[in-house]
Structures are given as C-alpha cells and as structure tokens.
Amino acid sequence: MTVYFIGAGPGAADLITVRGARVLAASPVCLYAGSLVPRELLAECPPDARLIDTAQLDIDRITAELVAAHRDGHDVARLHSGDPSVFSAVNEQMRRLDEAGVPYEVVPGVPAFAAAAASLKRELTVPTVGQTVILTRIAQQATAMPEGEDLATLGRSGALIVLHLAARYVDRVVAELLPHYGSACPAAVVAMASRPDEIVLRGTLDSIAEQVRAAGVTRTAVIMVGRTLGAEQFHDSHLYSPARDRHTC
After folding, report:
1. What are the residues whose beta carbons fall under 8 Å from the beta carbon of 169, sequence distance 6 or more?
2. Predicted TM-score (pTM) of this structure
3. Rounded to an integer, what distance in angstroms lies between the CA atom of residue 245 and that of residue 152?
4. Helix, strand, coil percent values for the chain (each to nearest 5)
5. Distance between CA atoms of 178 and 61, rounded to whole angstroms?
6. Helix residue ranges, H only, the chain
7. Among 191, 239, 201, which residue's Cα sits nearest to residue 10?
8. At 5, is the secondary structure helix, strand, or coil?
C-alpha cells in the first residue's frame, strides 16, 4: 500500500486540492499535525478511519505508524499544512520510508505564502520591479541555517523576502533587512492566512514590527518584505502586450 504526503493547504478546509481530498477520503489511516491542520478536513476521512495526531510524536513514532499501516495493508494519508515542498520535514520521513521499503507519493498543496499573497491582493512578481521571491526563515530555536543563507546575506539581493516561522522575532528581521531595503520599504505580515481569524498587517520596515506586537501575532504567520508589495507604477508585462507577435513561439 502507499503513504500519501498531502499538502493540506494554509488553513481553510476548502483549499485542499481535489486530488488531496480524494486520497484523504480513500485512506483508512490518517496522520495529521493537529496544531496546524484544520479539524474540518478530517471530516473527509472515511467514517471508521484511524486518526492520529502527530503534534506530540517524534519522527521515530511517526515512522512506526506509517510502516505499521503499510504492513497492515492500508493506504495512509499523511497531512501536512501548506505544501510539502517547503518547511514540512517531509524529507526525513521519506528517507525512513525508503529504508523500510514503503512506497509513497506526494500530493502538492497551496503554500502559506501563496495564501498570504491572495489575502494581500498582490502579485509577488511585478514587471520591471521585482521578479525574484526568496522563501526562507531564520535560525532561532530551530535547525541552524546553512552558511550564506542568513538574512543579511539574502537581503543584498533586494528581492522580495518571504519569511516563515519568524513572526516572534520580527524585531530581528527588521534590524537585519533595514540596511538593504530601507525603512520605507513595503512590508506585510499575514497570520492564519485563509482562516476565519486571519490577520493582515500592512506597513513598512519602519512600522511593521510595532503592528505585529500590537496585534499579538507570534506564530502561524508569514512576513513579506520587498518593493513589489507596494508597486503601483510599472510597465505591463510582455505576456499580454498588444505589441507582442502572437504568431511566433
């Protein structure tokens, strides 16, 4: 049988993909991160499904549950918030499943940064303003960042920075990005993106930290800093330009 790593999306239950919902509905075992995955999604599981909250489980116990379900002949839905491709700790689970000879597939989901951009009503790449998005985090009480991936280094690019897992340390984020972006650079924080209790904060590097503190945002948020967040005057893209020759490739 197969373990399916499913991106559950950013929070709203209806933002899971059709494929993800279909796999979830057909899996007799479901492991989910109870602190992040909306409970409403579990209603998609079969009525007699075995539901396992992984919030308090370490990697060895999670792997044991996945391997045991496979040996019992059950497909497993392994629900992760957002999309499994970023900050999901999926790699270490897949590595252990490879060692155990357990097959798996990955079903992509809507990442938190995409939901945050939707809430802000912003395209993160804007012609002639910014065409690069950096997804990153900071090292605090988690795994250390690789050499050369600190904010001071990444900030030299001037690209739009999207930070996960950093709302609690917004003052540090601002301090490290100020020398490269300037105090007037647009910044935003979206917490609980797509959920009923969503919080959207807009400002500049000079003001965003105070807004975050005032709103009491400490987790489940993304921080965005970059010129494209405030872009108003820019050239239309070539994609839909009337001057484009649509008869050539």
Report:
1. 138, 140
2. 0.90
3. 42
4. 35, 20, 45
5. 43
6. 18-25, 59-71, 90-100, 112-120, 151-154, 170-181, 208-215
7. 191
8. strand
What is the C-alpha separation between 1 and 198, in angstroms, rounded?
A: 38
Distance CA 47, CA 3 (A): 19
Tell me the one-letter amino acid at 20. Answer: G
Pairing of strands 50-53, 29-32: parallel
Token digits of residue 203: 């400002």
Supply the pLDDT for residue 149. 92
210 class by beta-carbon count within 10 Å (0-12 exposed, 13-18 middle, 19+ buried): middle
207: tokens are 């003001």
Beta-carbon contacts of 63 under 8 Å, excluding residues fewer than 6 positions away, are: 93, 96, 97, 100
What is the block-wise mean pLDDT of the chain (249 residues), using blocks of 10 residues? 94 95 97 89 95 95 97 96 94 97 97 97 93 90 82 94 94 96 98 95 97 96 96 74 65
Contact 128, 50 (CB under 8 A): no
CB 74 within 8 A of CB 65: no
Please tell me the distance from the alpha carbon of residue 246 to that of residue 249, in angstroms, as a whole number: 7
Q: Phi and psi (nearest 5°) for 99?
A: -65, -35
The pair of structure tokens assigned to 52 is 């396992």
* Cα Rg of the chain (Å, integer): 20
Sign of CA dihedral 173, 175, 176, 180: positive
Name 221's bridge partners.
191
Contact 167, 161 (CB under 8 A): no
